[in-house]
Amino acid sequence: MKKILCAVLALVLVLGLSVSAFAGSVSTSSVSSGSSVTKSESDGESTSALPVVVNEDYVAEENEEAEEENEVTFVDSNGEVVKTAPDALVMLPVDEAEKVLEGEELEAFEKYYEEAKAEEDYIVTNFFWLDVADEYKNEITAGNGLKLTMQVPGLKAEDEVKVTVNGNALPDENVSNNGDSTITACFYELGAVAIMTKAAA
Hints:
This protein is an alpha+beta fold. Helix content is 28%, strand content 33%. It is built from five helices and 13 strands. It has a five-stranded antiparallel beta sheet, with no helix packed on it. A five-stranded antiparallel beta sheet has the order 6-7-13-9-10. β1 (29-32) and β2 form a beta hairpin. The chain is globular, with a radius of gyration of 25 Å. The termini are far apart.
């Protein structure tokens, strides 16, 4: 009887150690939706990166090629295309930007948001943090522009559109109202972007 009891206890002990060892080898991870933050509980380390969104707000119902390719376009000062790149664009709406940005960048973002909302006669329809993936930042520093087509809620063909980056208005030639509730804008600077509209008189 003692031999049987000892054998049972030994088996229970072995099984218990095996389960513990297996549990200790499993690495659980979680991804925070929209913030691209990955955390591994096994090693206690975490990595974070700005979420990459490729023209998420771009509606191209009548442009199947653009919808399929969905590329970001970089242009020179003459508007000539110098590079197209998928997965290059980072667009953070207000709630995401306030979670990801820190220090001076966050202060500047909030400052420019308040300034945009205080603009007379204009309504802020879009406000976001504009950036590109690290491997494409040299395109901006080299003086090339980021050309984007974006949907603007409620925009009519006759409405005026004003786009600012870090509080500075883009020149009229860098912004166009496409007449289909979208605009095309060319950015030679990255940061806090406000798209504002003014109803035609």
